[in-house]
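Take a specimen:
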Amino acid sequence: MKTLAGVLVGMVGLALGVASDGALAATECNTPSPPFFSGTVVGGLVVKAGDFCFLDGAHISGGVQVRPGGILVACGSTINGGIVADGALNVIVGAEEIGCSGIVVNGGVQISNTSKGVLSPAPSIALENSVIHGAVHLAGNLGPIAVASNTIAGGLFCANNALPLENEGLQNVVTGPIRCEFE
């Protein structure tokens, strides 16, 4: 009986170790300056305050989180797990104006409380030329927002943004409800 209990305790310990947050810790996007990611990142990516993160040809598993004061520019990449940004300075995804190709997001996009932006003349938020397999939620953002030429599966939702969205004359294909105003 003691042997069976010991085996069970060992198996539970192993399972907890594999499932713990430390097993696949998120990669911090903070070096080199600015950090360019073009390979595979497993366990997610975190953009902290003061960090500028540029994804080009990256494959991220575990999603991307942009914390207050961080900047994300994503081009030609795949993100499995979605994008969550709260209080970012800029979130720029697939913007042709900067020579950036669109991305694929397997998950939703939630961007809230973004500032007026620091990458002039870019909008504070640009979601362009991308395929998003999930809903897009934009709430409480202060600066200009461009949402153009995307395929969005899951709906497009806005609440309490300072400005209406701009589609730059390029329509989005949205499967699901659209609860945003465009200029």
